[in-house]
Each structure stands twice: as structure tokens, then as C-alpha cells.
Amino acid sequence: MRVLVLACLLFFSCKTSKVGTEVGGNYPTPPNGIPIAENFFVDETEISNSNYQEYHYWIRRVFGADSEEFKATFPDTTVWSEIDGLSFLSKDYHKIQKFWDNPVVGITLEQAKAFSKWRSDRVAEMILVEMKVMELNTKQNRHNHFTIENFLSGDFKYIYGKKKIDKATFEFLYPVFKVPSAEEWELFSAVNSDNLADIFPKNKHNKSVFKKYPYPFNTIEFQKSNFNSFSSSDGTLNIKVVTAPVNTFGRNQYGLYGIIGNVSEMIEEEGFSKGENWNSSFHDFSKEKNNEFLKPNCWTGFRNVCRWETRKFEKKY
After folding, report:
1. How far apart are CA 157 and CA 134, in angstroms?
2. Structure pTM?
3. Counting beta carbons within 10 angstroms of the beta carbon of residue 42, is it exposed (0 to 12), middle (13 to 18) or buried (19 or more)?
4. Does the domain formed by 2-313 have CATH 3.90.1580?
5. pLDDT tens readout for residues 80-109
6. Nearest to 240 by CA among 264, 220, 257, 211
């Protein structure tokens, strides 16, 4: 639990001062974010198992283990049984530390959107705490937990602490995380053609990846190589790696991991995903290509994009 709490602080902490960037403009860079355009940021990595577990355990703590809200967060672990030889991951993949940094899979678009909304609320909550507008409520439940909508509507009664925020004047800059659209994904893929050199620039990091593996991406080419293997949790199997930690392999021109390979990524257009994965070939990659995504599987995850919005609160007399 302490590890999860620490991970939460690292994943969701954010500098709230308006430190501008040449690309992102006069906006702070959100947690795990890379500036792509004016007020448009993209996660450096795909959402990992540990990131999703933070959400999973928060919902359990606030809504209860028997709640429908908590039950709705569970990934479909049976997706691993669809691939010969990987059924043991149904037990291991979402739970053991070995896979904490690997991308979350087995979830629906609706679950990804719910995570994104929860993430927006949690980052906004911490911003208000850092601004000393409110104190952190460590005893939140289904009736008094913080949401951006309640705060913006003037429903302040649930905020923990003695701060009289209705008498304050301040500008509230808050993040809106979401699953990217197809157009947004194609933008941050940083590919201007089908030339893979566009997505694997010859920088120091990528050269080190290529020196370690003759494969820049975790796709089926790497899967069929002799460069990857690990033992199952009971030590009885020595099999190929499937997904890899989200911050491994090559980075594109923006510094994003996993645009090609590891897992394909959901887009907000229902029924589709983008990018190749550990079970497909990088030769099939095209930024315009839409993969069919009709149900959870073990080769599709997601990442968030973020934009900032502002609400000014005037002092009441």
C-alpha cells in the first residue's frame, strides 16, 4: 500500500505555477506529460498497471469493496487465455510487481474514460490543496469526495478544513485528461509519412536501445527473436516477454514511448485503436490506420492527452 501511495504522489503531483514552455505555451506541464502544441500535452508513456491500480484501490476505499463503482474498475483478466501459452498471465499480470510498469490491458473504452475523469479530479484536487484553497480530505466517501464539477458549481460543503473559499478570489487552472481522438493520436505520432525513420529518430536514447536490441519496437519481430524471455512466477515456465515496461524501447520525435509496439492504443472513436503492438508487425504501421477494437484484449491499452481549462472565482462580499 505504501508503494501505491508513493506512486500516486509521483504520478499525480504537478507544479501549479504557470511555467511556460516553447511548445506547450503558458501552461504547466501535467504529470507524465510532454508538450505537443499550445495547451496540448500527451502522456510520455502508456498507462501502466500501477497507474490503473491507484485508481482501482481509490475507488474501493471511497465507494467500498461491494460497490458497483468498484466492480466496474476490474480489468478482464481472461484476455490472456486467448493466446496459447499465456493463460498463466490471467493470474499474474495485473497483480504482481514484475508487471507493475507494464501497460494495463483487458479494459474497455468506458473504463479508460472513467480513469481519465478520475485522474482529472485527483490532479485538480491536489492543485487546490497546493494553492491552500482547501485541505486534503483523507476520509472521502461516495458522498463527500471531490470532483471538478461539484467544485465549479459552487458545491463547497464537502471540502475538508476551515478555509472559507467562498470569500477568496483566485483563478483555478485545472486539467482535463481524456482518451485522444484519432486526429490527436495521428498528430502526436510524429510521423509525416510511412517512413519509420520519422518515428525512430537517431538520438542518444534510441541509439542505446538499438545497441541493446536490434529491434527498436516491441512488436512481433522482437517477440520472435532470441532477445527476450522470463520465468513465470512459479518458476516452471521460461517464455517470451509479451508487453514491456512502458518506458522501454524507442521514443519518437516528441519523446513518447510506445507509439509503435508494446500495445495498440484506444482512441475516443468507439470500436478503434491506433498503432501496432507486441502481437503485430511494425511493417503494418500507418498513422492513418484504424485497428478494430470491439472488446478488451491483451494487446490494447491507452494513454491520456491533457488540456488545461480556467475558472476565475471572484471574492464575495
Report:
1. 11
2. 0.87
3. buried
4. yes
5. 999 888 888 998 898 888 899 999 999 999
6. 220
